[in-house]
């Protein structure tokens, strides 16, 4: 069956070629080459099993860039994208020449769900106005400030209560982590906190978790290559769209609830602030502050700020299970800087360089969103001497920066020392871009980093992380790898210290 699928896809995508017409274009790698390389590499890794993964980016990225260089063109049917590998090229497009490549390219699954509205998939004046407003408003409601730190500390205590209730028995903490990170985002966005046992809240979170997995699966990748065909066929991609549609309905209902109770003199959260901005802009025929953009911007913030942070936290703990010496070193730092008499605070971060290094290294190593989004060339231009026509899709691969051997020794190994200098002080690295970089860097980077530090420090202050009885090792490679690298589901014993 797998071989039939390979044949069908290769046939549908057409004849491969080694180079594009004209010497000025980046060398071409057509889908037949991509698929063949993915099959060959996966078969080698799996002992010859006939298993197919359309875009097994964790392995094929090394082979492709080695064979074709750091810049080449990939064709998917009639669509093409110029792919960029390595931190230098990624930085050149996203930072140094960011204005030339500011607009998002097409991603069929996101195009269908977002319809060019909101923040993530919008471009031009709409994106500029909505991002500027969102960043200002989120800061006004505490992002990066003391009051949101206190809110995270409060949520951490709810989380610790749930972990203590497990009495050291093994369990999968994924749902609890989603509840915790989702509540912090909900505080800013909706002005409310949900009980961890709230059935509607858990339903929405489960839809979000499943959707992230489906988007990263082979089915999700196939949809983004054959959207016009698969739109009319059943399959997991239809579940993906239904899930996200239900989440959008949830957000839209919250907007309606806010509208009924809005006090113009006392905005409570992001939604209230947006509603007031809509009233101010009523006479502006070109306003971007509309009900449709409010619903989608709130949806963008909710989905982007909840599952990515909880998945990252879960992976960090999984990594510490496999590196007990690292866990012990963090706990020693916690005991020296914080002790056991007070909760961790952001002020402690500056005095805990090893913990900070582990957080950065775990995010780099996980590589949660390896591909990122395509960008579109604003006008005819060139990259490294290659001609890039106006409107071309350019694909700066974030993963290639996070694993660039020019930036990191042994980039495919978990090594906290990547972020420490010879004196043990925390050392920044420009190639550390898990949240992307440039003008379209993730809006919630600061909030995510704050949560990761406070949750991790609080957990390790109170608990030892242990394998379940009979388990000595877990697999840190992704269970699903596509748009996202999704860690495997594992159980952990949280043993009180």
TrEMBL record:
Annotated GO molecular function terms are: arachidonate epoxygenase activity; heme binding; iron ion binding; oxidoreductase activity, acting on paired donors, with incorporation or reduction of molecular oxygen, reduced flavin or flavoprotein as one donor, and incorporation of one atom of oxygen
Alphabetized, the UniProt keywords read: Endoplasmic reticulum, Heme, Iron, Membrane, Metal-binding, Microsome, Monooxygenase, Oxidoreductase, Signal
Q: Per UniProt, where does heme bind? A: 442
Query: What GO biological process terms does the UniProt entry carry, in alphabetical order?
Result: epoxygenase P450 pathway; xenobiotic metabolic process
Q: Where in the cell is it found?
A: Endoplasmic reticulum membrane; Microsome membrane
Q: Which family does it belong to?
A: Belongs to the cytochrome P450 family.
From the Swiss-Prot or TrEMBL record, give the protein name: Cytochrome P450 2C25-like
């Amino acid at each position: 069956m797998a071989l039939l699928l390979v044949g069908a896809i290769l046939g549908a995508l057409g004849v491969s070629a080694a180079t594009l017409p004209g010497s000025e274009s980046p060398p071409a790698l057509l889908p037949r080459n991509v698929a063949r390389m993915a099959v060959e590499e996966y078969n080698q890794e799996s002992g010859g099993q006939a298993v197919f993964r359309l875009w097994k980016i964790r392995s094929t990225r090394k082979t492709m860039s080695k064979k074709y260089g750091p810049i080449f063109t990939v064709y998917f049917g009639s669509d093409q994208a110029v792919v960029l590998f390595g931190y230098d090229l990624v930085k050149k497009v996203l930072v140094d020449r960011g204005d030339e490549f500011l607009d998002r390219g097409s991603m069929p699954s996101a195009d269908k769900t977002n319809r060019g509205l909101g923040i993530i998939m919008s471009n031009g004046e709409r994106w500029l106005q909505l991002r500027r407003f969102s960043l200002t408003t989120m800061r006004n409601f505490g992002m990066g400030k003391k009051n949101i730190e206190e809110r995270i500390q409060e949520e951490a205590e709810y989380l610790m209560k749930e972990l203590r209730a497990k009495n050291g028995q093994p369990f999968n903490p994924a749902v609890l982590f989603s509840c915790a990170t989702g509540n912090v985002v909900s505080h800013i966005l909706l002005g409310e906190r949900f009980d961890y046992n709230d059935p509607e809240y858990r339903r929405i979170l489960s839809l979000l978790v499943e959707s992230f997995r489906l988007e990263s699966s082979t089915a999700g990748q196939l949809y983004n290559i054959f959207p016009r065909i698969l739109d009319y066929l059943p399959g997991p991609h239809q579940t993906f769209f239904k899930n996200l549609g239900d989440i959008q309905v949830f957000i839209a209902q919250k907007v309606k609830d806010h509208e009924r109770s809005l006090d113009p003199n006392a905005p409570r959260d992001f939604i209230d602030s947006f509603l007031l901005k809509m009233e101010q802009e009523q006479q502006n025929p070109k306003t971007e502050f509309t009900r449709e953009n409010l619903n989608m911007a709130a949806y963008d913030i909710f989905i982007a700020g909840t599952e990515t942070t909880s998945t990252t936290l879960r992976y960090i703990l999984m990594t510490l299970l496999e590196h007990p010496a690292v866990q012990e070193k963090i706990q020693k730092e916690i005991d020296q800087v914080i002790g056991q008499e007070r909760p961790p605070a952001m002020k402690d971060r500056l005095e805990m360089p090893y913990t900070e290094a582990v957080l950065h290294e775990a995010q780099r190593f996980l590589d949660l969103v390896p591909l990122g989004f395509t960008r579109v060339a604003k006008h005819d231009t060139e990259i490294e001497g290659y001609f890039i026509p106006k409107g071309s899709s350019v694909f700066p691969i974030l993963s290639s920066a996070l694993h660039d051997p020019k930036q990191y020794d042994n980039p495919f190994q978990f090594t906290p020392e990547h972020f420490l200098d010879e004196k043990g002080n925390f050392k920044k690295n420009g190639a550390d871009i898990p949240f992307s970089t440039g003008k379209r860097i993730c809006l919630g980077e600061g909030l995510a980093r704050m949560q990761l530090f406070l949750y991790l420090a609080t957990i390790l202050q109170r608990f030892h992380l242990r394998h379940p009885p009979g388990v000595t090792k877990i697999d840190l490679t992704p269970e699903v790898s596509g748009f996202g690298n999704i860690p495997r589901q594992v159980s952990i014993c949280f043993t009180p210290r």
